[in-house]
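Question (not urgent): is this output format expected?
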Amino acid sequence: MSTTNSATHLPDDPPTDPSADPAADADARSLRRMQFGWYINDWANAAFSATVLTVFLGPYLTTVAKDAADAAGNVHPLGLTIRAGSFFPYTVSFSVLLSVAVMLLTGTVADRTGRHKELMCGFAYVGSLATMGMFFLGGDRYLLGGGLLVVANIAYAVSVALSYAYLPGLASPDERDKVSSKGWAYGYAGGGLLLIANLALFQGHDAFGLDSGTAVRICLASAGLWWALFTIVPMLRLPSRAGVAPTATAAPTAPAETTATAPGKPGKPGKPATGSLRELGRTLRRMREHPLTLLYLAAFLCYNDGIQTVVSQASLYGSEELGMEQTSLVTAVLLVQVVAIGGALLLGRIAHRYGAKRTILGSLVGWVVTLALGYFMPAHQPAWFYALACMIGLVLGGSQALSRSLFSHLIPPGREAEYFSFYKVSDRGTSWMGPLVFGLAYQLTGSYRSAIISLLVFFVIGFAVLLKVPVRRAIEAVGNPVPERL
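Got this back:
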């Protein structure tokens, strides 16, 4: 069986004895091989999310910006005047706004050409190189840090969006929550393992003859190296084209040579960019034909923007408002990574029993409680900060994994990369509304407590919108098989 087409020829009901059907046995082995490659892709890129966005870069880049600030505490990138403490969240928000256009165009190119893996891995290596370049961030080079962050975050967003497009071809509808949750668990395990090494390096930097700034820069660069090395596994194990797993009730998927173009309008060989721009326009128009999918997407973009802002700004909040040392910050994030592994698997099991939508709604209630406790948390109390980290980890992985798998049911077959490009606008460090609100709140009040509590609005609105989404009807509307539990 060819590697390229294995994702689109999965057996619906394998025999009890796989050896009785060699073809089915080969399909099962090929599927497990691809699933492992997909899990390791999460293992690889989670290093950027955990080490760079969540732990080290926020506090370090803020310190660099403060070193470059004027007497009033302001920096002036591109002629703008902003507080040095707002530079990092503003840069994250700016990078996401730029990544939107890149993700949408790249997703369309991927679906049109079938080169999902090549594009996914190509952007992964651009991001990893930019991350390794953060080793040279020092002194007052806050603009260098901002530029590398923009490049790395855009590349990260595009690469992960393309990886999400593989999910429908890696699991049947009833198994998708399990596979998605396992992918997130791999991601948190990989990110956590690198954090353990980085924590050891940072705590023992004196023994290695390093100052704290150099240790941080080595930690940042290590995330890029980790990302690059482990991306080799999905390069070897995933097919070029992300496929759709067929079932007895699934809508037929167009052949590989025609799925990327609109009916009756074949693409022009040798001009993928021009054709993909036209196809992107058609995608935007066609999405209006699935208003329930858009309603779910709106809910997700809202509440997950809040989630990602909490994650990406937690270290900044801990260091600047709660007075936590760098060691305490790394330990707390490591706790998040470890607890999130169990949280993702636990919420996956709960979803199998009660349905993904109900489980996600319950996790959002947990986020509101966690955010409120964070607002009232006393400063200089690491034990309380660690407890908050455990609460975040418990709901973090599961809420994101289930959101991803639930959205995969709402995508018309053959348009996975395009739709997941919209989805990836707010996922794993690529939110933009939340960091913008967070930065503005601090800009106006000078208080990170005001900034953190301002994020409540994202969870409340996201909960309310998700509550109104008729998920079963939305899945039927795009022609996909409906899982047993929703």
